Amino acid sequence: MASAAVVVGTDGSETAETAVRWAAETATRKGRHLLIVHGLDLAVTRAALGGHVTMVSSIIEVMHGHGDHILAQARALACDIAPDRAVATELSEANPAKTLIALSESAHLVVIGATRGVATLAHLGSTLLAVAGHGHGAIVVVRGTGQPTHRNGPVVVGADGSSVGEAALGAAFAEASERNAELVTAHSWSDLTFGEYAGNSYLEIPIVDLEIAEHALLAERLAGWQEKYPDVTVTRKVSVAGPREQLAHWSKSAQLLVVGSRGRGGFRGLLLGSTSSWLVQNADCPVMVVHPN
């Protein structure tokens, strides 16, 4: 059995059920065990009820029972999908986001479900953005109901050409190799009107020269990974369009979209870059946000 688990959060919703399905399929493919987690966030309940000790105790007992029921249903679903995998459950009294962030330090990856624009573990979108932004390693956001848990399209990675994006490239190559899928590396440059390249305004540089330079940058970043994963067929896509538009387009046909936690600049104050933040809430396929080690 692999030491690091695939971890998935659930709140018992249909969207969370989709995430559990995806996580169980992933655990099977990767040969890893599965841990299903439900967070009760009892601190909020205690604060809301104040000093009513008897009432607090009664409500907490009900919440525990409901949490156990949610986990039992999720475990039954996971066992049906992955009968050869060990499936464990964990009921936490802590905040769901904090629980998943803590588990992400030792997990192989963490999976969370989301409908378009809304996370479902608790507190609407706050859990989704907190886990995707503050988690460790790979965090996968799986779209809600109405979407198949698996497609046969390519794995697509947003390659920004920076050293910050190396972790995302590595994860994308590994996923494409495991899935026997084509890997599309989508690279774009934006802020064309206001940006600079080598000290010159973009507007002073012929577009063809920019395109040649960006192709060279992408080739340099991919060279080592292509040597490590010779079985992966790579298609390079370089576009003038912004990364959000390009990756949103690819998400309509991709089986997995892989992005870094920060953009080209790698600003450490921005734990989740604007493009990654928008994609985890709006993309049409599962999105893997990869944090550098």
Fold and architecture overview:
- The structure is a single chain.
- The chain is α/β, with parallel strands linked by helices and 293 residues long.
- The protein has 2 domains: 6-143, Rossmann fold (3-Layer(aba) Sandwich), CATH 3.40.50.12370; 155-290, 3-Layer(aba) Sandwich (Rossmann fold).
- Helices cover 43% and strands 20% of the residues.
- Residues 117-124, 191-198 and 265-270 have low confidence and may be disordered.
Key structural traits:
about 290 residues, alpha/beta, Rossmann fold, two-stranded antiparallel ribbon, 9 helices, 13 strands, elongated
In short:
With 293 residues, the chain is an alpha/beta fold. It contains 9 helices and 13 strands.
Low-pLDDT segments:
117-124, 191-198, 265-270
Classify the secondary structure makeup into a structural class: alpha/beta
Largest sheet: 11 strands, mixed
Q: CATH fold name of the largest domain, please?
A: Rossmann fold
CATH class of the largest domain: Alpha Beta
CATH architecture of the largest domain: 3-Layer(aba) Sandwich
